[in-house]
Each structure stands twice: as C-alpha cells, then as structure tokens.
Design a protein that fits this description.
This protein is of the alpha/beta class. The protein has nine helices and ten strands. The radius of gyration is 22 Å and the shape is globular. Bound molecules: 2-acetamido-2-deoxy-beta-D-glucopyranose (5 copies).
C-alpha cells in the first residue's frame, strides 16, 4: 500500500517536473500553465515562443524617440499580416516577380534580398517592417532561384546582372507609386544593402537604409552621386569581416559626405555581418547555418538598429 502510494506520488512529481521542463524548453503546455506573454508585454526578439499564440514579438508601433531604445523595446503584438503575395510588375525584362504585403495606400518600403535570394528570412524581415504600418515589396532579382548554402549564394550573386537589378528596383518604386503609395523608401541587407544605395542613386526614393552592404564599382552605381534630397541611414557592425569599417566603410562614407550626400552612419560595437537576420526565426537559422550553435548578437544593439530603422521611416515616409 505504502509502496503504491509512493509510486503514485513519484509518477505525479515526475509528470509535473516534465511539464515544467517542457514549458521552459519549448513553450509546450503553456496554455495549460498560462505563462505566455500577452499583447503589450515586453519580450525578447530571440525567443520564438514567449508570446501567446497569434502574437509575435516585434517593435512597438509608435516608438517616438530618436533611436532611444528605452522607449522602443520589443513587445508581444498581434500580427496583422501572415504572408506576402507573389506579384509581377512591369520592367525592362517584361515583368519582374516580387512579393508584396500591406495596404496599397500606405507608404511603401522596397526590401532588397541578401545574396541568398528571396528566402523565408527576407520575407519575415519584410513582414516585421510591414507590421509597422507600411506596404512592402521584395523584388525577386533572382526570379525564383534561392540558395540554401553558401557556394550556391556566391554563384547566384556573381551571376547577378546589376543593370537589370537596378531596373528591377527603379520599376518597383514606380509600380508602388502608381498603385497608391505616395512615399517610398528602400532598405536592403548585404548585397541588398549595396542595391539600396543604387536605388538611392537611380530610383525616385524618399529615403534609403543600407545594412552592411556597398555596391562594387562594376555595378555602375556610385553612392557619391546620390541626390542630396535622399536621406541615407547606414548600419554596419564593427565585427563585419565582409565590410571592414576602417578599410571599406569609412572611406566610402567620408567620400559621400564630401560629395554632400545626406548620410547618417551607425556602427554597432561587436556585431557581425548580417546581424539584422537575428530578428526573425528564419534569419537566425540562416545565420547559424542551420545548426543550433547560433551565437545571438547583442540583442540590445539589434533592437537599437530596428528602432532607428522605424524612426527613420516614420520621419521620412510616414508624413
Ligand atoms: C507564405 O508564402 C510562401 C511562398 O510565398 C510559402 O512557402 C509559405 O508556406 C507561406 N506561409 C504561410 C504561413 O502561408
Ligand atoms: C544585363 O542586363 C542588361 C539590361 O537588361 C542587358 O542589356 C545586358 O546585356 C545584360 N548583361 C549581360 C552580361 O547579360
Ligand atoms: C571605386 O571607385 C572609386 C571612385 O572612383 C575609387 O576611389 C575606388 O578606389 C574604386 N574601388 C575599387 C575597388 O576599384
Ligand atoms: C569582435 O572582434 C574582436 C576582434 O576580433 C573580438 O575580440 C571580439 O570578441 C568580437 N566581438 C564579438 C561580440 O564577437
Ligand atoms: C550589449 O550592448 C550594450 C550596448 O552597447 C552593452 O551595454 C551591453 O553590455 C552588451 N551586452 C553584452 C552581453 O555584451
């Protein structure tokens, strides 16, 4: 009898311990235990299962400071958009495919892919931007091709015809304006950061936000020729080995300033290349190369980059 009672007790203790463990490790059973975070609760961009079902951890909507992260901490919010729609818009190559989301009358943000192509990481990043009240469009420069490993990405990237790519960007901006968006910004990451600078030079954009990218000379782009009327907000990590600050970033930025380009440069201490991928689950998977030993870049700094982005967008294309 005593043995049976001890056994029952042991089983109960084990089950409870297991539930608690499961909750802590996977967020499993949280509806049972009621520990998920509600709308408006502070959360971590890196924790995928902190927020209650149907909510995502993202930046608050009206983050009014000038990049002061104390007013711009991520919180659980209901996602209004669950996916992007594949579209085609007219260009010199006939049509260019792209992925669009958000309301047509909203100010728009053209989101430029990394060298991987239009994968889930860039789509999720675009959705985070759309959540801030924007229409988004990702032009698909590779026309459906997506790299899953590094060598493939290098191949696709070196095959990219920048003349055609720049036309894809110019026509994306024209399409957005023609179909309801009065203001259009361009943001891009890595290869797309370079393309965002090309867009600032050649497309009629109201603002440009290049992240850790610079167009090579052969692309036909020269960021020093960006019109003074196009404000540029650039973001680089000091541990970016692809675009070292002293040898690549500063010489370009100094020469842009000397040419009167309106550029604000933000450097992030210790952050690696492609750090903005850390804001989405697919991006984190990409940074870790699919393995689980991903070292999370400093979340305070990644959050700061996000809040500077939303502040800049609101300042230049919301009104
Ligand atoms: C979103 O769209 C992509 C293709 O554009 C598709 O692969 C994915 O399954 C969709 N996700 C959801 C949640 O509908
Ligand atoms: C790149 O694209 C442009 C415009 O579409 C075209 O004229 C040119 O021939 C292309 N270059 C190469 C090397 O394919
Ligand atoms: C690119 O062009 C600029 C301006 O003409 C020049 O200063 C720079 O050295 C060039 N870079 C390369 C890698 O050729
Ligand atoms: C950045 O690079 C420096 C020098 O290579 C290294 O000591 C430091 O640990 C790196 N920082 C991070 C956050 O990885
Ligand atoms: C992250 O960056 C902030 C701001 O620079 C710094 O105060 C903090 O110590 C960093 N955190 C870690 C874990 O390095």
């Amino acid at each position: 009898m005593t043995t049976l009672r001890t056994l029952t007790l042991t089983v109960i203790v084990a089950v409870v311990a297991c539930l608690v463990q499961a909750k802590e490790s996977y967020g499993f059973g949280r509806s049972l235990l009621q520990t998920c975070k509600k709308s408006g609760d502070r959360c971590s961009l890196y924790a995928t299962s902190e927020c209650c079902d149907g909510l995502v951890c993202t930046m608050p909507l009206e983050c009014t400071s000038k990049g002061d992260r104390s007013e711009c901490l991520p919180e659980c919010r209901k996602q209004t958009l669950s996916n992007l729609t594949r579209i085609e818009y007219p260009s010199n190559s006939g049509t260019t495919p792209g992925f669009e989301g958000g309301k047509k009358y909203k100010p728009a943000v053209v989101v430029m892919q990394e060298w991987w192509g239009v994968n889930d990481a860039i789509k999720q990043t675009a959705l985070h931007i759309a959540e801030q009240g924007y229409r988004v469009l990702i032009p698909d420069l590779y026309r459906g091709r997506v790299a899953v490993e590094r060598m493939e990405a290098i191949g696709l990237s070196s095959d990219l015809n920048w003349t055609r790519g720049i036309d894809d960007v110019v026509k994306a901006v024209e399409y957005l304006r023609r179909t309801g968006s009065k203001k259009v910004a361009i943001i891009g990451f890595c290869q797309g950061g370079g393309m965002a600078l090309c867009g600032a030079q050649f497309a009629r954009v109201d603002a440009a936000l290049p992240f850790y990218g610079i167009p090579s000379n052969f692309t036909g782009c020269n960021p020093r020729l960006i019109p003074r009327s196009v404000p540029v907000q650039a973001h680089f990590g000091t541990n970016d080995t692809s675009f070292p600050i002293t040898t690549r970033v500063m010489p370009l930025v100094d020469s842009m300033r000397a040419a009167s380009v309106d550029i604000k440069l933000y450097l992030y201490d210790g952050l690696p290349h492609a750090f903005f991928n850390a804001i989405t689950p697919a991006g984190r998977l990409l940074m870790s190369g699919g393995s689980s030993n991903f070292k999370f870049p400093n979340e305070t700094l990644v959050t700061l980059a996000f809040s500077r982005t939303t502040n800049f967008l609101r300042l230049h294309i919301r009104h």
